[in-house]
Here is the input.
Amino acid sequence: MREPAVCGESMTESKRRRAVFLDRDGVLNEVRLRDGIPLSPTRPQEAVVLAGVADACRRLANAGWLLIVVTNQPDIARGTSTREQVEAINAAVTAGLPVSEIVVCPHDDVDRCTCRKPLPGMLLDAAKRWDLDLAASWMIGDRWRDIDAGRRAGVRTIFIDRGYSEELRSAPDRVASDLAAATKMVLDGVDDWENHWLEFADSASDNPAQAYRRELIAGSIERGPRPARILDVGCGQGDLLAALHARWPDAELVGIDLSAEGIRQTSNKVPGARLLQIDLLRDDPFPSSITAWADVAVCSEVLEHLEDPGAFLRAAAELVAPGGRLIVTVPGGPRTAFDRHIGHRRHFRVASLMSLLRGADLDVVRVLGAGFPFFNLYKIAVLLRGKTLIRDVSKRGAPSGMARTAMRLFGWLLRPSRNASRCGWQLIAVAHRRSPRDAAGPHAATSPRRAPRSSRPPNRDANCDKRAVRSASPTEADA
Here is the structure.
């Protein structure tokens, strides 16, 4: 392990990597509570490593994650502790752990430094030293300062809920009970779609935004030839496939999804469809019966969940027949607390979606931002609801009266005819897969389908794009 770094010190590392930033107190070691607030250990003998931490750290390191501890230690500035005492506690906590670096902020709020969490200085400086991919990295902490620092640095965040008396000030991407649970989220790619569809399937079916998207997709399909073979890429719980079956009952239907629970629910809604549980980024080869099969394929609200949406699009394009159409919807605008809860890694702009489509060697027909003004207004309402919406739409509790009223109102407002502007936060694109003759031309793609995984920093908002293409106790822990 490197010597502990203090904010502002410089180190270099040549290889670009992903990291898991770890808070110290309450994440790695036990804390004492005073009035519901955690207190840091004051000497090495008090530094007791929490159960499961060693194994969790080893699992992360073995999977290639760089582990960097970022800890506020304001007792140094307050004169109640020394740098040497803090470093001795750091050594006791991390002994035997595969930690690459410990970064310490020795300042207090009055020092107005840039490294004290919730400011992101410790994370950003470490990213420069280690040449990190922040968009692919994580911050795991047990206090609001950790989550805010992570969000400001552009990393994904996991909050370890210890039941402290303080409130979070921004929504984390995920919530875990301890480091072992957080590690599982990191290693599993976060999104637990089996539990997702068990918990949120009913509310997703009643969501007026979902109905609006289905109308947009159906309208885009109707602009072209009558479909004979429809593929739903990421069919979820089956509402879209059921709607397309009702509109085109003679068309052959195939739905593919990563989730067994999603496939089960879809089979109940569309019993005549062929349904396959497939991971487009890992299963190779695909069944020959669906390769280059669809004359219309739909990929709705999937790409925002993925670390590498470009690789996914390239894989999905292989299932479209030459000359066939691929219709894609993704969210624009700011990410809400609910979006983060269900695993949105990014939202898109018209230009970024177009770039993904072209990178998949597709001929783009149009990309536009639909839904202004009422879809945007709906998303603002969701943004203002914050974390309360997560509880409201969960299957564990019936929606409140206010939520039901709002859904009915927006169900009436969200009609394509009332949201005709191209400045909306619902992005929809139509593209064609090139025929073999076209693909052999000067613009033929040369990149493989299975591109190395990488992430770009999430687009937190999308502007209107009219270029539519056709003060704390002295020993408070990590204060």
Remarks:
- The chain has 17 helices and 16 strands.
